[in-house]
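Task 17 of the worksheet. Students: predict the tertiary structure of the chain below and write it out as structure tokens. Keep your answer in the requested format; marks are given for formatting as well as content.
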Amino acid sequence: MPIKIPNDLPATKVLREEGVMVMREDDAIRQDVRPLRVAILNLMPEKVKTETQLARNLGRTPLQVDITLLTTSSYRPKNVSASHMDDFYREWEDVQREKFDGLVITGAPIERLDFEDVLYWSELRDILDWTEQNVHSCMFLCWSAQAALYHRFGIPKYELPEKLSGVYRHRVLSPASDIVAGFDDEFRVPVSRWTEVRRPDFEAHKGLQIVAESDDAGICLVESADSRQFYMFNHFEYDRWTLRDEYQRDTAAKTNMRVPEHYFPEDDPSQEPRNTWRSHGQLMYGNWINTTYQTTPFDIDQIGRRSGDAAKLSATG
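Model answer:
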């Protein structure tokens, strides 16, 4: 089944060339099925690149997914045209009374700031509280995963002595978790961050389960006890060139960046990198969409009511 994205979104051309089934809004309204409503709160500065990466993963599933792109109301992005934001994004304040089957909140290049110093921190806290009654399942990525854990559980982040960048081997700790169904025992995933969370801080929170981690890169994926909140600290959505582009940007800025580990052949940045994480990334996002489909109410207005008699979407879809 295709992904439904806004008419004329720049990602459309790229996705179609890659074989991802894309449905225009005008075509989707003629279909007599309820798609999954998934919102993406995009906090990354390069909006188009992140839109494409996430739509690529969400669009390669057997279900129809209706994407809504969100931005904060209290902070206006500076690295994207106003016309792009006006054409394709809705402010969070405008959707507060709506329900969504899923929500993805991206990372943001602000990891070294204290959470309270982030310009839109107050609004993000409101959004996180809003998800409890208005979103069935959430996927938090990188910085937003740290932010959500800090807001909800007081779990801190720790600054690393240098940026952790590369493609690291991780192991599955909870193979029974649906989010890693079909995973190999070990997998690779891109890592790009200045901060981390640490295992001892999770010991007091029995409602959180560490699903995957790495000896070199630390905790990778955490799941809530009700399997409705997923905290992913790394970047399955990255494409082949993302770490290279970040490395070149940081090097140009003279930040003394090390070459991303296990990414370029022979760790030589003059060679073309290989994508060694695509299949597991697609599997994780597909698992998330499928689990959301299996458990969300058919009547979307029932989200947040937690009534046991609400029919599941899979039962009638």
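Marker's comment: The chain has a mean pLDDT of 90. DSSP finds nine helices and twelve strands in the chain.
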